[in-house]
Amino acid sequence: MDRQAAETLLRTAVGDPNAHFRPGQWEAIDALVNQRHKLMVVQRTGWGKSSVYFISTRILRDRGVGLTVIVSPLLALMRNQIEAANRLGIRAETINSTNQENWPVISAAMLDDEVDAILISPERLSNEEFVGEVLLPVADRVGLLVVDEVHCISDWGHDFRPDYRRLVNVLRQMPPNMPILGTTATANNRVIEDVQAQLGDIEIQRGPLVRDSLALQTLRLPDQASRLAWLAQHIPELPGTGIVYVLTIRDAEQVAAWLNQQGVVARAYHGSVVHDDFENSNQYRQHLEDLLLNNEIKVLVATTALGMGYDKPDLGFVIHYQAAGSVVAYYQQVGRAGRAIDTAYGVLLSGKEDEDIHEYFRRSAFPDERDVNAILDVLAEHDELSVVQLQPHLNMRRRQIDKVLKILSVENPAPVIKQGSQWRRTPVPFRMEHERIEHLTTQREIEWQEVQGYINSEGCLMAYLRHALDDPETDDCGRCTVCLGGPVVGIDVDRSLVIAAAQYLKHAEMPFKPKIQVAAGAFRVYGFRGNLPVGLQAQEGRILSRWGDAGWGGLVADDKHAGHFRDDLVDAVAEMLEQRWQPNPA
């Protein structure tokens, strides 16, 4: 296959008879289909990495080579890519948590060589039934392996995912001369070296990471009320539609509600967002993505759940309500904007709570050694246990148990294995890698300081990002607030909006839903099983403020240490009870 023929496929894929390869695209395709190389492509978001592997898939399948396996981290990416593959006549399927009823049909089609490309999440590699009955039987005839967002395989990456580590085991079952393509826009030299160590002798293709359309700006504001006011004042002035990134689910809901109150059409987006009109969170998230894609809302207020793979070429702006944890993560998120328009805006707001949130993220990144040992000890005392059966033996939340088991299960060899829903202890000894954990935690702290350097930079902001990503080209962009010598988006904040936002935050109480499910064996004398009887279930409560929240959080924290809550807080609770909540206890 030569360049001209491949370019014909490109035009079919993108629906443009005048399309041409971007620099590096043909070279990547040539390396995969003609030279059968292992290749890692580091190119800016919007460069067209998916075009490379779908055109390569079409060429290889036309030669009678086996299917392409694409490991991709997000459902949003899978949906978009299946549509792109279909335009090339590629039968692409996905096996994920949202289409379980289709698994048997898709699996049978794979085994019969009727599927050209299969897209799976890294979590699917932890499913022994899928690996054993579907993937391994076709492993020796896989024509191309694609690892999308390959930085996730590295401890050093900003978005490390333990399930990606299972890839190394799967690779051993695949043809040794099989071409491999790893793609990412967010890998510095340290991440690249780690990926090379895990995937073998892999070539690197790097392109310039500059985003010519992006006008960058940073802005420190004293408190959350000021940031909310800034958003309400300036988002309506920005062109098109955009994303506001937040660090927590609580902030996603709170900021979206505030913007709607101020006449800005917004929706909250996070991993557990639900709506009564939709069967599950996955369906509702797809609906939210479509609303933004079709410009039916002004802004999506999102956690990192809206990340890799969401593609809206005309996205006009990305604003960070709080600072990202690393420059690499920030580049990946702000790079969603301006892919196919001349001017887009990336504004990073920062406040005093950012440090506390990221400190919590760093502390909770690795499980406590006592929790790990407790789980291993319980499993060692039993033949096998499900997570539900584990819980009564442990003083841990379900989420903590799941996290520990996942981390243990991707070790090689693993001290635990999962068969169906049952977990079993293996004879493999386990020791916490304290030195590695300390090293990575220190690295995360250094990355956070890099973010502070970006916020305070007196040089070009785009050049700062590119330098942090080890881009060899770091020329000034000529578009950011530093290069222009003035703000690219207004920095003034309307005082009346700040007052309104402060009042809003003080009235932003949260529902508290008591648990209704009884832990196994917790009330043996009463014989309760499953849920508590309706007559014994506690009613929903209200939380005036979380610890350290904007609004009342600062006073709550101060007064807890003082041992006495001031009258202002008592009055605030009374106002919440009498004027807004108005409960009617049974």
Can you walk through the features of this model?
It is a single chain. The strands form four sheets. Strands 3-4-2-5-6-1-7 form a seven-stranded parallel beta sheet, sandwiched between helices. It has a six-stranded parallel beta sheet with strand order 8-13-12-9-11-10. By secondary structure, the chain is α/β, with parallel strands linked by helices. The model has no long low-confidence stretch (mean pLDDT 88). Helix 2 (25-33) packs parallel to helix 3 (49-62) and helix 5 runs parallel beside helix 6 (128-139). Helix 12 (327-334) links the parallel strand 12 (317-320) and strand 13 (344-350). The chain folds into four domains: 3-206, 3-Layer(aba) Sandwich (Rossmann fold); 214-354 and 458-496, P-loop containing nucleotide triphosphate hydrolases (Rossmann fold, 3-Layer(aba) Sandwich); 363-435, Winged helix-like DNA-binding domain superfamily/Winged helix DNA-binding domain (Arc Repressor Mutant, subunit A, Orthogonal Bundle); 506-581, no CATH class. The longest helix has 22 residues, at 434-455. It has helices at 3-14, 25-33, 49-62, 75-87, 103-111, 128-139, 166-171, 189-199, 224-234, 249-261, 281-293, 327-334, 353-363, 369-380, 387-390, 398-409, 434-455, 461-468, 481-484, 495-506, 553-562, 567-581, and strands spanning 38-42, 68-71, 92-95, 117-120, 144-148, 180-184, 203-206, 214-220, 242-245, 266-269, 299-302, 317-320, 344-350, 416-419, 422-425, 510-512, 541-543.
Which secondary structure elements does this structure contain, and how are they paired or packed?
Blueprint lengths: L2 H12 L10 H9 L4 E5 L6 H14 L5 E4 L3 H13 L4 E4 L7 H9 L5 E4 L7 H12 L4 E5 L17 H6 L8 E5 L4 H11 L3 E4 L7 E7 L3 H11 L7 E4 L3 H13 L4 E4 L11 H13 L5 E4 L14 E4 L6 H8 L9 E7 L2 H11 L5 H12 L6 H4 L7 H12 L6 E4 L2 E4 L8 H22 L5 H8 L12 H4 L10 H12 L3 E3 L28 E3 L9 H10 L4 H15 L5
Parallel strand pairs: 1-6, 1-7, 2-4, 2-5, 3-4, 5-6, 8-13, 9-11, 9-12, 10-11, 12-13
Antiparallel strand pairs: 14-15, 16-17
Helix pairs in contact: 1-3, 2-3, 5-6, 9-20
